[in-house]
Amino acid sequence: MKPNRREILKSIGGVIGASGLTFSSPTLVGDDKLPREAPSSSGTVGLPKNWRSMRKIDVHAHVWQSLHLPDADWSGAEDLVEAAETLGIEKLCCSRPITGGVMADTEKVRDANDSVLAAMKRYPDRIAGFCFVQPGNGPAALAEIDRCVDAGMIGVKLYNQFKYSDPILFPIAERCIAHRIPIIGHSGHVTDAKTKASQPNISDSLDFCMLSERYPELLLIMAHVNGGGDWEWAIKALRACPNVYLDTSGSVLESDTIGMCVQELGHKRILFGTDSTMEGGVGKILSADLTPTQRGDIFWRNLQQILDRRSA
């Protein structure tokens, strides 16, 4: 009988775990000592020969379906895991934010996070969770962070309900510091009138810098440098904020974003992410002019070092 693709995908997480490809396995590929990668000779022009086996942790991924419900449609999550397997992405840090600036109440936020928890349970070695919170929910938002962390989530996801320089964010930052977990935040230096009108509270680099300056110990990640808006401005504006990391995700595949990130910020502040642009997300790191150590740091090591602080 021909194996069912969905059944195979359900077992991928277990197979990967059995292979030792987990957050706690720090050296899948010893790329520190590798020479600069030679292009493949197998027809994949320009790709390093070992590109798929390079360890990769995606800091910015999503599940969007209500996976915790009895009649859940798992097709989107299964496709996500299948794509990660194809591209050699070991781990996906997933969240399910409530977008559009909606001031979601506690029940809706909890429902969104339950979807991520369901995905973590089904793929324990492939999917990690970031807990979405709506800061306007006050103490309930802090309780939701505690609930998610107790259930195994490793970070907090913020969207565009409030600018990150708004004092309403301060308790969220303080709770994340107490848990020693990172915040990853939706961002964009938008310049067009339509986006400005639809996302009036979207944060840009200056908002991240203000929050980081107030809480220099906060592990703060500015999401999707290629998510839209003026990415060159966004990178340059982070130069004076050494404690803010930047993820490489986004669907705007312009050259040479990664090179400029490294030049302006140094490669130790750059984290690999896809935000659903998975082939392009991997490709932009592979095509950038990086040393093997720089590429390994961006693909996984920088994030691993952030996560290791939870138990430091």
TrEMBL record:
UniProt xrefs under SUPFAM superfamilies: Metallo-dependent hydrolases
Tagged with keyword Hydrolase: yes
GO biological-process terms attached to the record: secondary metabolic process
Protein name: Putative metal-dependent hydrolase of the TIM-barrel fold protein
Ranges where the Amidohydrolase-related domain occurs: 57-276
Nucleus in keyword set: no
GO molecular function: carboxy-lyase activity; hydrolase activity
